[in-house]
Amino acid sequence: MSAGAHTATLLEWARKLQAIAQNGLSFSRDPFDRERYTELQELAAEMLSVELEIPAVRARAFWEGERGYARPKSTCAAASSTAIRCCWCANAAMAAGLCRAAGWT
């Protein structure tokens, strides 16, 4: 597996973990379940932080305002591993002019 493919895979796993945690926090009322979903969210932030070599606080900020059911986000097309890393957070990458929208995931 190439370095770019490895990064893309880990970022996809982190995105999926975040979506599971967000959905769980949205619909669960049990305090123990909410604690587990919060831990999943932290794990996703740690994965993102390590893979992108950014502070965990910044990784958490990518989905800080996300509430409710996790809906698909637009993605962007990229060729370099740097751009692939940016595309995980499509809205921020597009806003910064790093890539363009390519559809829905």
Entry keywords:
single chain; 105 residues; two-stranded antiparallel ribbon; mainly alpha; 2 domains
Provide an overview of this structure.
The chain is mainly α and 105 residues long. It folds into two domains: 1-71, no CATH class; 73-105, no CATH class. Helices cover 63% and strands 7% of the residues. It has helices at residues 3-27, 31-52, 56-61, 81-87, 90-95; strands at residues 74-76, 101-104. A two-stranded antiparallel ribbon has the order 1-2. Helix 1 runs antiparallel to helix 2 (31-52) and helix 1 packs parallel to helix 4 (81-87). The chain is elongated and about 40 Å long.
Present the secondary structure layout.
Elements: H1 3-27, H2 31-52, H3 56-61, E1 74-76, H4 81-87, H5 90-95, E2 101-104
Antiparallel strand pairs: 1-2
Helix pairs in contact: 1-2, 1-4
- Mean pLDDT, all residues: 77
Helix content: 55-70%
Give the quaternary arrangement of the chains: single chain
Number of domains: 2
Low-confidence stretches: 77-81
Beta-strand fraction estimate? 5-15%
Order of helices and strands: HHHEHHE
Short overview:
This protein is mainly alpha-helical and 105 residues long. It is built from five helices and two strands, in the order H-H-H-E-H-H-E. The longest helix has 25 residues, at 3-27.
